[in-house]
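## Example record

The block below lists the input lines for one assembly entry, exactly as stored, with component labels intact.
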Amino acid sequence: MSAGANPDVLVRVEGLVKHFPVKTGALFGGSGEVVHAVDGVDLEIRRGETLGLVGETGCGKSTLARCIIRLLEPTSGRVVFDGQDIAGASARELRTFRSRAQLVFQDPYGSLNPRRRVGSIIGDPFEIHGVAKGGDRVERVKALMRVVGLNPEHYNRFPAEFSGGQRQRIGIARAIALQPCLVVCDEPVSALDVSIRAQILNLLGDLQAEFGLTYLFISHDLSVVEHVSDRVAVMYLGKIVEVAPAADLYAHPRHPYTAALLSAVPVADPDVADRHQRTILTGDPPSPLDPPRACRFHPRCPKAQPVCAEREPALEPRLGDGPEHTAACHFPVADGELLPTAPALAGEPWPSRP
Amino acid sequence: MSFPTPDGVVEAVRGVSFGVERGRTLAIVGESGSGKSVSTHAIVGLIRGARVSGRALFEGRDLLAMPADDLRRVRGAGIGMIFQSPQSSLHPYYRVGWQLEEAIRAHERVEKKAARARAIELLRLVGIPRAERRVDDYPHQFSGGMLQRTMIAIAVALNPRLLIADEPTTALDVTVQAQIIDLMRRLQAEFGTAILMITHDLGVVAGMADEIAVMYAGQVMETAPRRPLYRHSHHPYTEGLLRSLPRADAPRARLTPIRGQPPSLIGPPPGCPFQARCDYVMDLCVERPPLAPVQGDPGHRSACWLPPDRWAQ
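Predicted structure tokens for the full assembly:
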């Protein structure tokens, strides 16, 4: 990976680490414990693509995204955006960067100020970056509202007068106002009903085609990620465990965690659901306060061997995959291989009842 | 069911009927505001301030007409419940085990020691590791998945004949969701518990429900055994829900959403509640269609004026 100036790459993340000190007991000098939220991530986001980022609650995917757009200061590592290191950027450079990288939030109820009119919320980016003023700004906001499928006549309404799906359109309008290169979508449809979710996913697709946007699309919903992504990265406990083109990842998962995650996805088809062999993982992810040594998945992995607790596997192509498909596992899953079902869940008898 | 509010009367549930037999699973599927939760909460007396009419028969007795004390005995012992958010369903001040024992001792005369032993046994049953130690933990020491397992342990503690599960996996990650579904199915196979599962997710119930009822704007739009429902749904709303889902065999294709927004439940217009969003809308739709049999499967009924054999043509 020496393509430092590859024009294809919009964002390059190198050795990114983000630790949070634990605050409990701060009165007595703190506990000294540290949450290893992101723990050494290398990743690239290519111009014009949608990179899906999946993983379960607490795996660090949102923290990683917030470091990439510098809403959080990384503990160490580099984030190179369009050739410029964001970590070392001056306040002025950061301001320019902010207009080029935007975020769409998960919660359309919590991310809009309820006391402000929708028109002025969407117009904020123009105001902050001094782009358009007065009547010009109003016109541009109305044009944006049209682009995202809102009625421009609703310019003076308050967020409470809009439904969840419409509020998400407001959030999207605000994010694309300054025509950014990168839009980080953090669970943008998780709070929406199925029928509305499809409307927003279509809108995001249309905007990408029209404005050449690059998306970092974060979700815990694997079927949505499969639908929108060109490439997908899977995260577990602060590390990327697998990256591949979407079709490849879903058809040939190499990391046992990816395979288990995919097998747990419910399918809305009774026949498929009945035939489905599920790999049910036991337990919960370990605490990021004290992540397991070497491969972090080894305590829950059905294929784990002693070496998995000793040597950390590199993120590299496995089983003859091309350079595009990398996995961090010593014992990658072969095509068609069924993972053993965890024994702990299979057998325990039910206790007798009086 | 209706709720008086300052803005007007919300007609949350309008003429809904369903039933579930011993050892079977009925899934009620619907989006926000469809009335799926309130209707099931109402039958066990957990809704306040609502005007409720109709009957809710549990083993032949009407729960809605029952004295409060009788209903309390049925809840817990006869009907177990699991809710969407396990974090807010357990009391943060009390140890997990104490809360389990409390549920048992509220219904059965058992010694404290015996109740504690049962609590440990139940936690082990639902897959809490080192249950004999975790029984003294507080809820905040449990993960979301463990809390939901604990809720299931409480719900099944008295071996209920009916389990009402309101979005039991919505707040959980997929791998944990699979564990919880697996647990519920094992429980049902072992004890013949009837399950009433409420969900917005057509995926979760595809492998688990025997029957599915689709609700929209306070009404049942379609009800069928799961195969006919997914294979040849009759109602355009069900069809729209299924088509809005991303399909694994057509990635990156445009999805087919349902246009528009759900209607207001304050003074809803007469007729079919879906007509404003429906692709097949006709003059007849200003009259409310009855839930009528659909050709094909005897258990398949749909509240739509489209011909009962619409797929045969």
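Residues 343-354 of chain A have pLDDT under 50 and may be disordered. Chain A touches chain B through 53 residues (CB under 8 Å).
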